[in-house]
What we know:
This protein is α+β, with helices and mostly antiparallel strands. The protein has 12 helices and 19 strands.
Amino acid sequence: VGLLAILKAGGAYVPLDPAYPVERLDFILEDCAPVIVLLGKGLESRLSRWNGLVIALDLDRKGEQDAFKHYESTNPGVTAQGLRPDHLAYVIYTSGSTGTPKGVLVEHRQICRLLTTTESIFKFDERDVWTLFHSFAFDFSVWELWGALAYGGQLVVVPYWVTRSPEDFYRLLVTKRVSVLNQTPTAFSQLTQVDAQYGQSLSLRVVIFGGEALKLRELRGWIGRYGDDVPALVNMYGITETTVHVTYRRIRQEDITANLGSVIGRPLADLTLYLLDNHKNLVPTGTAGEVYVGGGGVTRGYLNQPELTEERFTNNPYVPGERLYRTGDLARYFPNGDLEYLGRIDEQVKVRGFRIEPGEIEARLIEHPAVHEATV
C-alpha cells in the first residue's frame, strides 16, 4: 500500500529492509535524503539518527477510524501533474566495493518496457497468482510486485517467516493456487526437496529463476516428476542497473542430460548485449568476455556518485549515442547463439541473490580498533 501511494503521489520509493543493520539504514537515509519515511509498526528503533518526517502505516485497530476519518476511502487517481516516463520510480541500494552501498536510479519507463517486452513470452493475465517472496530491497521484488498488478493478477505477500520455511511456503503455494513463481535457485532447491517429500497438487504454470547462477543438474528431480512443459522452467539473467531481467532461456529436459553450464539464453527483444575483451573488442564464439548491456533497460546511474556512474555506464563503441552498462560478469556464446554465465571478473559474490562486495565487509572490519588489516 505504501509503495502504491508513493508512486501515485508522483514520488520515488527507496526500500529500507528492517532486517538491515541500523548503520546501513542510517547511511541510506543520509545518502538519499527522503522527504518522508513510511514506517511499519514496531520499527521505530530502526531509525536511530533520522529526525525527518515519519508516517506510521500500521496504526492500532481501534485508532484507525479516528485517524483516517478525514480522508477519502475510495481509490485515488495519480495526483502528480506532469508525471513522465523518465521520472524516477525507485532507488535500490546494492553493495559497494569501496565500502559504501550505492543507490541505483530506476525510471518508470524502464519498468514498463520490462513488462511489455516480456508480454509475448509469458502471456501473464488477470488469472495469474503471484507471490511477493523476496525483500522489496531486492530488485526481483520489482518483477513480482508490478508484474502481478500490471496484468490484474493476484499478489500474495509472503510473510518473512514463511520465506524461511520451505515447508510452510510449499503449503502456501498449494492453498493459494500460485501460478507464477519467482525464485533464486538456492530457494527453489530447498522447495524441490519438500515437493519430493509431500508431492501435493501445485497450480504452477511457470517458474522463473534469477538472482544467482542456476545449476541445471539440481533440476533433475523436479523435471523427473513434472517434465519440462507445465510448469515451464525459465532462467533469466539480470542486474539491478539494467532493470531486473536481461536474458531469457526456457529450460528443457535435454539441457539437463547435456550437462550444460549456467545457460542464460538470449537478451530480451529491446536490449542489446555485447561480450567484450579488455580493449572493448568483440570476442569470438566460445571465448569468455565481459557482459555489456544496452537498450531500454539501462538505468539512469548511481545516486550521488557521478564518477562511478561514468565508469560503469559507458558509451557504446558500435552504436553512437547509446549507453552500455558494464556488468563485471563473464559469459561466452555457444555455437547456437545462447549465452553461458561464467561468473564474475571481480570478487563480488551473491548470497541468496543479494550482491555482496567483500570490499564493503573489509572496510567495516578495518574500522575496529583492534584490526589493522583485513581481507574477505
